[in-house]
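So, is this right?
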Amino acid sequence: MEYTRKLTEKLSVEQVKIELLHTAYGNNETFLAKLDPRTLFMWYLYFGIAPWFIHNQSILIGLFVFMAITTFMSKVTPLVIIILCLGLLGQGGYLLIASWFFGGDLQVIVPLLTLTLKLSIISLASITVFCSMDPEKLSNGLLKIGVPGQVSFSIAYGYRMLPSLLEEYHHVFLSFRLRGKAPDKHGVLYWRSIIYFSKIAVLSFYPLLLSTAKRARTTVEALETKGSFYAFSRPEIKKIKLVHLRFQYRDYLFLMVSVLYILLLYTFVFLFFKEGL
């Protein structure tokens, strides 16, 4: 009973919100968080795309180990890791079931494991990059590489609003439970309760969407009143806003270590395993 209570506390909406806030704002002291956002963008440009074109399992395993190290360095919260694992298990599981349904055998496991390994590398690279940048830093980095101001602001705004939206969704969900009537009996394997809560979970999205649209409109009107969108199109204002972004010694060091690791990994695989990409 005590274990169930502790598990429920860890899975509460309030705890999820705290984990999201920690992910967005709590990693400012890590080495990766101190890098220039353009450095992280360039680093992610390889590790987020290259695994799709690599079919050598040894190289993929080496990249996965490197991604695991960088994810550990970025101090990712356990919630994000759990969501990643559930997503990968669901992705590989339904593909395995579908392949067996259409006449596959145990030989399909190896390609599915390779695909899962690729998805793991790309997912860990995404977690490493975006958990190392708060919304403001992400927005400034996108502006610096030439992304339109409205687009960069929209991404950062959505990033900031996620914990608030989660809390509001929880309130709407509880209001539906308060006004509704739960099943008198749970049924076999709790199927009545599952249907009841699933229905409430879907219905709770509609008020949330309306509230989000209203809040976004209010925010846009406030920004237009202050002239923020005019500032997005003025190069001199953007230059002043982004003057603090510059490459430093640690940026070059991080990129050099990454490139050196990749070169050593390819050399090791080609020399000792005699395999291609």
Remarks:
- DSSP finds 13 helices and no strands in the chain.
- Confidence is low (pLDDT under 50) at residues 1-5.
